[in-house]
Design a protein that fits this description.
heterodimer; A: 1041 residues; mainly beta; Immunoglobulin-like; Maltoporin, Chain A; 2 domains; 22-stranded antiparallel beta barrel; five-stranded mixed sheet; 48% strand; globular; B: 484 residues; mainly alpha; Serine Threonine Protein Phosphatase 5, Tetratricopeptide repeat; two-stranded antiparallel sheet; 20 helices
């Protein structure tokens, strides 16, 4: 290792300044690298650099994004000044593709989009994935809720897999090591409570620190990830963390942000009528708000559920006031330094957050140490080590009586939630509802805590054999231990005597990669870049889940402090898989304008039966820079590339599916439950899932055609992609009729296609003197289709309640909603209204449940603007979505119970359902001419609204199109001379806000169009007892020294 | 030289990495979940399936039947919907799945693994299968049987006619009885048999009692079969005759092992359930001493300081009594801490069945003794002391004697059968459909297509969705075949 500042006799120090050709200004951040080595440095804020080169013939390579790379031979010079010109092509930039391989963008035959660290830093959120929203065409990121630590559902180009929500997301890679981002719940009873989340269960993507991110490459489609193997079948998000600045200096950056969160969208309530039915106060324990009009009687009062007289009046903010203002405080310090051969960075980050739900919070500590060093004998080492500690406190959410959001959205308009005590003198809860917890009580007495310690690390050793041949060995690991404690206090509605569950996960994943790289030129026109590799992954998750029921001392949340301790049936090995892969990729370039690359990979997976364990998949891509080839250079079209690629990716099964097994019985659900061992009697029952020892790997094949154009001297760039992907032989668990003796079986079946386009247009809109305005538009459109499921099967349920929810239906887009529909006249299509009997004037239920909605959007787009003037910068981003349905239980129930605004309009007047008359058994009533008779039966407003609503049905489906002001930032960087006088490198102040304006016309402004609390790709659009989203406002400070 | 040495060093470093090339078979053989075996013993399956049957009869199915038969009243959520006869296909999904995917499949596994060498096991399995299937066809009508539980061999089992199912079930039951009587029983489940501890003689009694029940069930359609069959059984006289022989599974006091009605009524949904005021009034009218065992008065007393049971009318009209006041389920139904049994067939029930047979198809004079014994056995099972038990019994016998016709006597008999079966509501529902007694008025407000108490349950919605051989959904007011 060469110590800083020392120069050996065989070496030579070179200094110089790099300036921009256009204005002669110094260029900071330019890479200065000794060609053929990993030795290098970066220019400082004025463009100066200092580097030590081995004597003999050395060449320095100067490169910077957006500028043409220059190579200059040292030739004994000690001072080298360089002028760099703007790269009109913008295709020479180097991007990180798979496994940290760097490739020039021009050589890539596939679609890849790049986001740099600046764009995710200080954006009024502490979640890296949330700050990626809208920045990449085709990348869809949905925040699961506004609670601290809530994770995100990430999809690239739609859903491809029918099995399991954790198999649809892209592979997430940090510094070359894949990390775990799966979702799984702790709640005891499988079924609706688990699907819809018993607490803010996040995925571990929340552990990453946005300030550590140097760049993010999003690889879409099978080709882009053919080198990462099956785990990247749905694409990959490659995150590179910051490395040091180098150049014999020691520098640092301190960032600090303070952000306020407030609850974003709540239902629009009516405040004219309170608790009751049929305009009278019929019951003090009802959630109905169909009672008397406020003010109809002077000094009106009612008797509450405790038998006491209370004033009867509206409390318009009774739901809104439940929420607190959230605070998020993040602080980061990064120290980096190095020499020409060594760089290191130490990053410390701390996040402290309290959420909008009382008692909810998250704190996170990130410590990262990374560095690299290069020896002159051709060996270089790179390593990074992350320690992350994340602690989250939340409360139950989702579909259970103890969920904070079970009743909160529909409490009677006359119920003074905040103004009443939450407990009675005897210690039990004070709440009008007998089947649900008081939300305030629940937030404090049913705490959910999660503590995670996570270690992500990697180390690699590279050796440059010759100028054109090198080898790298890289090992990485992702290890975490998450300790969850889910508590239901004594007197909670869900578990009257209280319950404590300790759920401890131990996850470890080891990754090994061995690569041989070839980078050779043959003559003037042929170049070859090739990689051969071997990859190994061993991932395992063990789980220990113990439950204590019946708390003895109400405030001690320890399983030993309970009457009965049992072990949850899911205790044990949750997941174990080993993968081995060998692969090769070669890109041949002709005259630097035509590139052909081919790749092939063979994987072996432990989760497939022995006979079918090995599978091979190839890919090919072509990239043609036609402007270079035909020497086209006009003022309009300055650079153009056409690309086409075809790729296949295989995928394996979830572990443990190849055989039918027996399981420890667990009968029932959240209402009544019986587990084994039953006293001292053991038992096993045959699993309802038929295993399959003839499983084959899945296959996804994709074509992609695209073009990248530089227009108007590269002032604008346009990147267009059309893709067509087929996923077949899906390993899916298909529903079978229970009468077969099973409820599902695992098989290869199904064909799902995803076709679409992605467009990225970016460039400089206006430039006048010191004023600059850049804009980027992202647009994507995906059409998914379930072409075929299995022999004799036309639909299978993905998620939801028994019989209603999201389904894969043959001939329909993926994930459509099936729910009850009301009967209609086959002739006219009008709704049938019952003309006699108890249900006169209301709707007739339909025969079967049908497809009622489609959660897939028609298109998504975003508009990102950055304006700068001298030291000021102003940026704003709009995200929009057209189409995409949500099926909302919250709106459905709020309508049935008379809480929302629409139900109060003309409430005292009679209502008539638009439809035609029918008998109670469903026969359409016809007049003398044989025509149907329009309904004229008057009913009360209450009967009218209740006829349509309640739970999931066709009328709870809403188009969730929206436009949203995603981000808005106003910042100022102190001028250079002021900064220098402070002995600093830079000072930057900014204010930023997130999600502060939303226009979603079809949702009545009742729920957030993006939040549906069921996390995961298979439950898209299902909204049931969801936690609202938040709007954030923050101030940020960044000081570099 | 230095370079070469360096290169050699690097290659040596990389050699260990190279040995991992290729798919080493053993390294990848890790795909068996250590917690979920692929083979188990029949005794483990037997315990699991017995608890499963008890769970089926003691949970949601019981609540539906109890709402129809006006033992309990719904005050919120799903139970209120059942109370108002608002039952749809999705409400049958869980129960249907439990019958086929849970119970019948496990029973089939027991028979498969036992083979021919273990007739005690296979006999028990057959009895349990017939009990489960007969109950299933009683509530749903025509359902899959002959093609059911075939796994991949038949993914679209057809729905058999109820009449054919019954014929088939009688054959299976007879085969089971014969197996139970074999001299070499093979393996004995012992304590794993939560019902009779492996006692084959008791199983035979249960099987005969089940056969009696099923024959009686068909009497409206095939009186000859019923008469011949039941007379043969009476001659053999080998029924469940004491409460110690009751065909039932007992639950425990520990969390997640309690009677599901306890779980529901006490732990998780106490706000959803109340005792039916109609049942309370009916019991009080006859000063039935069992009321204090069926229900707890929750501290409520009347003017003379006697316990008062506050219930709620069926139909969901008005404000239900508050939690502090409403009567709760008692030790006979759910145990003090959940340890009540789920009763399948009791000794009292056998007596009442024999009484019904005598009054309709047999010798009417024999019925009185059966009726009297039925009341006695029920009182004993509940735990009523002989004094009050006899007082009640004599009063009822007086009413019985005063009844003029056999039909009137049947009405008295069935009224008492109903009163004794508070923890077997599904049984009462079947009785009511077959006999028309007790005479019940439908719930005050309800959404049944004809405003009457349902006479069957809708088919499972998921079954209809996934089985192309399934018929269309049915309405709850369409009678099943034996309900003539």
């Amino acid at each position: 290792m060469i110590a800083w500042g020392q120069v050996r006799a065989q070496e030579q120090a070179v200094t110089g300044k790099v300036t921009a050709v256009e204005d002669g200004a110094g260029l900071p951040g330019v890479n200065v690298v000794v060609k053929g080595t990993a030795m290098g440095t970066v220019t400082d804020v004025e463009g100066n650099f200092r580097i030590t080169v081995p004597s003999g013939s050395s060449t320095l390579v100067f490169s910077f994004i957006g500028y043409v790379t220059k190579e200059i031979a040292v030739d004994g010079k000690s001072i080298i000044d360089v002028e760099l010109g703007q790269d009109v092509q913008q295709l020479n930039e180097v991007v990180v593709t798979a496994i940290g391989l760097e490739r020039e963008k021009k050589a890539l035959g596939y679609s890849l989009q790049h986001v740099n660290g600046e764009q995710v830093s200080q954006k009024a959120t502490n979640n890296v994935f949330e700050s990626l929203q809208g920045k990449v065409a085709g990348l869809s990121i949905n925040q699961n809720s506004g609670a601290p630590g809530a994770g995100s559902t990430i999809l690239i180009r739609g859903v491809t897999s029918l099995s399991g929500s954790n198999r649809n997301g892209p592979l997430i890679i940090v510094d070359g090591t894949p990390i775990d981002n799966s979702v799984f719940g702790t709640d005891a009873a499988a079924g609706s409570a688990e699907v819809f989340g018993s607490a803010a269960m996040g995925n571990r993507g929340v552990d990453l620190n946005p300030e550590d991110v140097a760049s993010v490459s999003v690889l879409k489609g099978p080709r882009a990830a053919a080198l990462y193997g099956i785990r990247a079948a749905n694409g990959a998000i490659v995150i590179t963390t910051k490395r040091g600045a180098g150049a014999n200096k020691f520098s640092g950056v301190v960032t600090s942000s303070y952000t306020l969160s407030k609850v974003n969208i709540l239902p629009q309530y009516q405040n004219e009528y309170g608790q009751g039915l049929s305009f009278r106060h019929h019951s003090a324990v009802s959630s109905n708000s169909w009672g008397r009009r406020f003010g109809a009687i002077a000094n009106d009062s009612i008797v509450d559920h405790n038998g006491k007289k209370v004033p009867y009046q509206a409390y318009p903010n009774n739901v809104k006031d439940f929420f607190d203002l959230g605070h998020l405080f993040t602080n980061n310090i990064q120290l980096s330094g190095g020499s020409t051969t060594t760089k290191f960075i130490l990053s410390l980050g701390r996040t402290d957050q309290t959420g909008i739900i009382p008692g909810s919070e998250m704190e996170r500590t990130n410590i990262r140490l990374a560095g690299n060093t290069a020896f002159e004998n051709g060996v270089s080492l790179d390593g990074s080590f992350n320690y992350i500690n994340t602690n989250i406190v939340g409360s139950p959410q989702g579909n259970s009586g103890s969920s904070v959001f079970f009743t909160l959205p529909v409490i009677p308009r006359s119920y003074n939630l905040l103004g009443r005590p939450t407990t009675k003198p005897d210690g039990t809860q004070d709440f009008y509802s007998t089947s649900s917890d008081n939300p305030i009580w629940s937030a404090t007495h049913n705490p959910y805590t999660s503590k995670t310690n996570r270690f992500i690390g990697s180390a690699s050793l590279s050796y440059q054999f010759t100028e054109w041949l090198s080898a790298t060995y890289k090992a990485g690991f992702d290890i975490y231990n998450e300790s969850r404690k889910e508590v239901y206090g004594v007197n909670s509605r869900r578990f009257l005597t209280g319950q404590v569950t300790d759920d401890i996960f131990n996850y470890r994943s080891i990754e090994s990669n061995f690569l041989i790289n070839i980078d050779k030129e043959f003559g003037e026109s042929i170049s070859l870049k090739a990689t051969l590799g071997h990859n190994l992954n061993d991932a395992r998750r063990d789980r220990s889940i113990v439950r204590g029921s019946g708390l003895l001392t109400p405030t001690i949340y320890n399983v030993l402090n309970t009457q009965t301790v049992t072990v949850d049936p899911r205790n044990g090995v949750d997941f174990h898989r080993r993968l081995i892969g060998v692969f090769g990729e070669a890109t041949v370039g002709y005259n630097d304008y035509l590139f052909l690359s081919v790749s092939g990979r063979n994987d072996w997976s432990s989760t497939l039966p022995v006979d079918n364990r090995s599978f091979f998949y190839p890919s090919a891509a072509l990239s043609f820079l036609f402007t270079d080839a035909f020497n086209i250079s006009s003022n309009i079209l300055s650079a153009g590339k056409l690309r086409v690629n075809w790729a296949q990716v295989g995928n394996d099964a979830d572990p443990f599916l190849t055989r039918t097994v027996y399981v420890i019985p667990n009968y029932g659900n959240n209402v009544a439950n019986v587990n084994f061992p039953f006293g001292s009697t053991g038992g096993f029952t045959q699993s309802g899932v038929l295993g399959n020892n003839k499983l084959k790997p899945e296959r996804t094949t994709g074509y992609e055609y695209g073009a990248e154009l530089g227009l108007f001297k590269s002032r604008f760039t346009v990147d267009f992609t059309y893709y067509d992907q087929r996923s077949e032989d899906q390993i899916i668990t298909l529903q079978v009729p229970s009468s077969t003796g099973f409820n599902s079986y695992v098989t290869n079946a199904g064909l799902i296609t995803n076709k679409g386009i992605e467009v990225l247009v970016s460039g400089n809109v206006l430039k006048a003197g010191d004023f600059k305005w850049d804009a980027t538009i992202n647009f994507s459109r995906n059409r998914s289709m379930v072409v075929k499921l299995a022999e004799g099967l036309t639909q299978t349920q993905l998620a939801g309640f028994t019989g209603t929810g999201s389904f894969a239906v043959e001939g329909q887009p993926f994930g459509v909603f099936i729910a009850p529909k009301f009967a209609r006249d086959p002739q006219t299509g009008e709704l049938l209204v019952i003309n006699s009997g108890v249900n006169r004037g209301t709707l007739l239920p339909g025969e079967t449940d049908e497809v009622v909605g489609n959660p897939n959007p028609d298109w998504n787009g975003s508009l990102i603007n950055t304006l700068s003037y001298k030291g000021f910068r102003f940026g704003f981003q709009f995200d929009m979505q057209k189409g995409g349905d949500i099926i909302s239980n919250t709106i459905g129930f709020a309508t049935q119970l008379g809480s929302i605004k629409e139900t109060a309009v003309d409430r005292d007047k009679p209502h008539i359902i638009k439809g035609v008359q029918a008998t109670p058994t469903g026969a359409v009533v016809l007049d003398d001419q044989g025509n149907s008779i329009p309904n004229n039966i008057q009913v009360t407003a209450e009967t009218y609204w209740r006829a349509f609503s309640g739970g999931f049905n066709e009328f709870s489906v809403f188009d969730a199109s929206y436009i949203r002001l995603r981000e808005i930032t106003l910042g100022y960087s102190l001028p250079a001379n002021l900064v220098k006088s402070l002995k600093l490198q830079g000072v930057d102040l900014s204010v930023s806000a997130r999600n502060i304006w939303t226009y979603a016309p079809n949702l009545g402004h009742h729920i957030d169009p993006e939040v549906s609390n069921a996390p995961g790709a298979l439950t898209r659009g299902l909204e049931f007892n969801s936690t609202p989203g938040v709007a954030n406002y923050g101030v940020n400070l960044k000081v570099s020294f | 030289m230095k370079n070469t040495i360096m290169k050699i060093k690097v290659i040596l470093l990389l050699v260990p990495a190279l040995y991992m090339l290729g798919g080493c078979s053993d390294y990848l053989d890790i795909n068996n979940d250590p917690n979920s075996p692929t083979e188990v013993e029949t005794r483990q399956l037997l315990s699991a399936v017995q608890v499963n049957i008890a769970f089926l009869m003691g949970n949601d199915l019981q609540r539906m039947s109890a709402a129809f038969m006006q033992y309990y009243a719904g005050t919120n959520n799903q139970l209120l919907a059942y109370d108002q006869y608002n039952v749809v296909g999705t409400d049958s999904d869980a129960n249907w799945g439990r019958v086929y995917d849970g119970i019948l499949q496990d029973l089939k596994e027991i028979e498969r693994i036992s083979g021919t060498a273990n007739p005690l096991y296979t006999g028990i399995a057959k009895v349990l299968k017939v009990y489960t299937m007969s109950t299933a066809t009683d509530v749903w009508g025509d359902i899959p049987y002959s093609q059911a539980t075939s796994g991949l061999a038949n993914l679209k089992p057809k729905f058999d006619l109820q009449q054919e199912i019954y014929t088939n079930l009688f054959q299976t039951l007879d085969a089971g009885i014969s197996e139970l009587g074999q001299a070499t029983p093979g393996l004995n489940p012992g304590a794993a048999d939560l019902i009779y501890g492996g006692d084959a003689a008791k199983w035979v009694k249960a099987a005969n009692s089940l056969k009696l029940k099923m024959l009686l069930q068909l009497r409206l359609r095939d009186s000859n079969l019923a008469t011949t069959g039941i007379n043969a059984l009476i001659t053999a006289n080998n029924f469940i005759s004491t409460n110690a022989e009751n065909f039932q599974v007992r639950f425990l006091t520990t969390i997640d092992r309690q009677h599901p009605m306890y779980d529901f009524a006490i732990n998780s949904r106490s706000g959803d359930i109340a005792v039916s005021q109609r049942f309370i009034d009916s019991l009080n009218q006859l000063a039935d001493p069992r009321i204090g065992f069926y229900f707890r008065n929750n501290g409520q007393v009347d003017g003379s300081n006697n316990p008062k049971y506050v219930g709620f009318n069926n139909g969901g009209v008005g404000t239900p009594p508050t939690a502090a006041v409403r009567a709760l389920l008692g030790p006979y139904n759910i145990g003090a801490s959940g340890e009540a049994p789920q009763r399948f067939i009791t000794a009292a029930q056998v007596q009442f069945m024999l009484a019904e047979f005598s009054l309709t198809l047999g010798t009417a004079a024999n019925a009185r003794a059966y009726f009297s014994k039925g009341i006695e056995l029920s009182m004993a099972d509940v735990g009523v002391t002989s004094g009050p038990a006899d007082t009640y019994k004599n009063a009822r016998l007086a009413t019985y004697d005063a009844a003029g016709t056999n039909e009137a006597k049947l009405r008295v008999t069935m009224r008492d059968k109903w009163a004794s079966q508070v923890s077997q509501a599904t049984e009462s529902w079947t009785d009511w459909r077959r006999t028309g007694y007790p005479m019940l008025q439908p719930a005050t407000v309800n959404s049944s297509p004809d405003g009457q108490i349902p006479v069957r349950l809708p088919y499972s919605a998921t079954e209809l969705q996934s089985n192309s051989e399934a018929p269309a959904q049915t309405l709850v007011n369409l009678k099943v075949w034996w309900d003539n």
